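Interim report, section 4.2 (structural modelling).
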Amino acid sequence: MTFQEPVIDEQKPALDYIFHPGTIAVAGVSAETRGTGIANSYVKRFEAAGFKGTIYAVNPSGGEAMGRKIYRSLKDIPEQVDFVVSAIPARHTPQLISDCAEKGVKLLHLFTAGFSELGDETGNALETEILSVARQAGIRITGPNGMGIYCPKTGLTFDEGFTRKSGNVGWIAQSGRNGTYVVRDASMRGVYFSKAISYGNAADLNECDFFEYFRDDPDTEIIAAYIEGVKDGQRFFQVLKEAASVKPVIIFKAGHTEAGSRGAASHTASIAGSSVVWNAALKQAGAIQVYSLDELVDVLVLLNFLSRPAGRNISIVGFGGGAGIQAADACTDQGMKVPESPQELQDELTEICGGRAGSIFKNPFDLWPKAGSKGTSAAIESISGWEKTDLLLVHIQFDLNPSVRNMMYRPYLDTLKRLAPEIKHKTVVVLDFVLSAEAKKLSLEVQSVLAEFGYAVFPSVNRAALALGRYINYHDRRKPAGNLFV
Amino acid sequence: MTFQEPVIDEQKPALDYIFHPGTIAVAGVSAETRGTGIANSYVKRFEAAGFKGTIYAVNPSGGEAMGRKIYRSLKDIPEQVDFVVSAIPARHTPQLISDCAEKGVKLLHLFTAGFSELGDETGNALETEILSVARQAGIRITGPNGMGIYCPKTGLTFDEGFTRKSGNVGWIAQSGRNGTYVVRDASMRGVYFSKAISYGNAADLNECDFFEYFRDDPDTEIIAAYIEGVKDGQRFFQVLKEAASVKPVIIFKAGHTEAGSRGAASHTASIAGSSVVWNAALKQAGAIQVYSLDELVDVLVLLNFLSRPAGRNISIVGFGGGAGIQAADACTDQGMKVPESPQELQDELTEICGGRAGSIFKNPFDLWPKAGSKGTSAAIESISGWEKTDLLLVHIQFDLNPSVRNMMYRPYLDTLKRLAPEIKHKTVVVLDFVLSAEAKKLSLEVQSVLAEFGYAVFPSVNRAALALGRYINYHDRRKPAGNLFV
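Predicted structure of the assembly:
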């Protein structure tokens, strides 16, 4: 097997071949007698991810590991090698790249650190040398100092336990840990990836290349990025603008302070740039800017599950007056409207719930759960059917004493499952008050069921409100003037 | 047993007797043959909390529950009753208050809802009637529409599973759920309570009474409040200012928007007031204002564990470049300084860690954990010993693949335990990247150990930085001019 060539499918963007290697070689695999390292993990990860081609192990010391021969050199491998992953010390990489060139390798991923991010002459010289050989030989490089490529369709991955389910998000991260965190969190919340790249120092392939790719990739509908710095600001702005004009692009730019940018320089040799310039550029390009990984995933979840709302009105329902008030405050602060419910709806809810004591029916709605599953269901159906419910926020709390908790979340869960076809496109569910490990376990189970049913799920009303504000503003900016939305 | 009278200890503030009942009666307990309700839970909770006096059950229907006789009336109880908890329907409360008056009850807690928060004449009239009888008879009331009193020293509680450990925080909440959430979260993080009151509509005893009490209570060192509205703004401001002049006061004021204040009116009959006025008043009174329960507990944790820092410089250390950069950004944004480390310290760390590849030694410090327990320990000791480390933020991530996680958190935990006597007063520990139930369980175990060792623990760098900014500003405001701190 070899790379799928771009000529096979003219619909695919030029860079598509890097996600379709036929064979992989991992450099730095230790023979089992000598212990095990990160390179060995890569071999296991590709196997577990269902990579269909052959995976070769390479190490000058030879030996055997994981039931396979370790080749002493790339050049000893008896067939074409498309993709090489390197976890060898930086000082050995010049030999490796020269072997790659001889072998006709198309893509090299350098997990290896110790290049330009060191900020010294040795590191810079090494990176320049590798790059120069790669360019001559037509080898593309991801990294150095990154985790690699995740593409569930073709069995590529850069960490253990990533889901094999494919999705619609194209994600790039200049930090490996951040790259994995977002994949894990998003997939636990029902959002999956077309491709993700942890691209480290971006010596060769960089954020611009990936944005261009994602823009044209039919499998990618939403683009997200964690960026510490870019080398060519002008190209970046142009590429970002083009991408954002066809697909939503979410960007978390780190290193916006002096200390943060010092960190970015040492981490991935990035020049972080002025935050004023960045903020203005992202806004002008039409990107959605966020300020943490959690905020990034929160917006991904909304873009994935919700449909463009008809307006800014939101109804808030749950069990707990304090939580409802905070949700009303937070939603208003983020630019939504929380309209008061009409008398007819209040009367209807009073009847459904058998009285008013302990409940609030004005929006925010606080439903004391004595109405049980049937009453809760009828109440939420009435509220979601109200013409002013452009959006619906349902909050459920978990760290209550168990008897109250069980009385509470089950009617809500039943209701949300039953009403999913009608309301999931405009509903966010907050699973809140999760303190103990037991509450966490239960809330994750509920989250998983709700995500299966197509719901956007959040861990707090404040996070839901912040994401909703960004989501609404995004749609607002993209809508022609003169609409009800503003 | 009867109430501990204030005359016994002249040091104690006047209201102290409400936390020392000798006997309790719970009104509304159901005979076991008729099922069980909230009143039955109160009986069980007081028992579990170690209340030393007798707990009586009352219900006009009589019968037996939890091995005790249910008295048909308060008046049938054969001894003095100090404290009555009512969970009976609102319409029966006039009879109850009249029985309380006859029986010489000193404190009535009304869990019962259905009073002024309904916003109608019936509810208002009922509340006025109850209050008038209470005033004549010298009965104080907490609630209605609240959960009650938590005082671990005397075995009072308002929810299941509250710790019996006493602490230094006096806490009041106008929402029952919020009241319990803060007690649970804080005590999981090593912060305990002198007294907490979920005070609902505040028909009689209100936030002013409790602030006055906490101000003079020798067991209370920190005061915190969740408030939806106050009835007497002038008195509130005066009392708050006096309390804040002797002890730190943290306030989360909810209902700052139109919809939020509509919720507050329906929830606890509160007039939320203008947020501009509130913000100005809280600032002028010297209170620390927060905007969520999580933020409130975060500041509590710092006030409990840290000593006033020598300055605004913070050193950031952990494993993960991206996380370090975000922490540096967040700390700078919140008014701290993240100074660059001197060359000698960088050289020392390079030697300790056996090289620079994969690490950052400039602050933020990113320690690739190959140095093991001994190296990590030496590195953190060097960093914390640096003269510019006024504050130290240590971040540990949990949702990594298990082999990396174990390699990582153990050396950090060992180090923090060993260095606790020297560094705990200036260190915050962030247990971050907690997604799975398994990671949550482990991080809570680590949190519990760290809290035992006297550390302030946070779930994200952003939350730690926000709380630190507030904590530093609080101390800054209280310091005379002309110091290094500004």
